[in-house]
Design a protein that fits this description.
The structure is a single chain. By secondary structure, the chain is an alpha+beta fold. It has three helices and six strands. The chain has one domain. A four-stranded mixed sheet has the order 5-4-1-6. The protein has a two-stranded antiparallel sheet with strand order 2-3. The relative contact order is 0.26.
Length: 87
């Protein structure tokens, strides 16, 4: 994917304002509470949960507020200059 294609990608919704240079960890999803049993990829909105039909792991910010699926991580990591922690 070229830079111009990335900039016009349907998954872009202003994430550079809060995800540029973010520190990320690859994590298995664990529910925050019984009422909060899933997250969504910040880019493609893929569901991330413990359900076998969903993504079960993804890249997450240190505060666990933002999740990025493997495909979107691969597509945007260079542009966003993400730093992956080896935890």
């Amino acid at each position: 994917m070229t830079n111009s294609q990335r900039k016009e990608d349907w998954r872009r919704k202003g994430q550079e304002a809060y995800l540029r240079g973010a520190f990320l960890n690859w994590r298995r999803y664990s529910p925050k509470s019984p009422e909060w049993e899933h997250e969504h990829c910040e880019f493609c909105f893929a569901k991330i949960s413990t359900n076998p039909a969903d993504e079960n792991a993804a890249y997450a910010t240190e505060d666990l507020n933002c999740w990025i699926c493997k495909t979107c991580f691969q597509d945007f990591s260079e542009e966003f200059n993400w730093v992956v922690s080896e935890e």
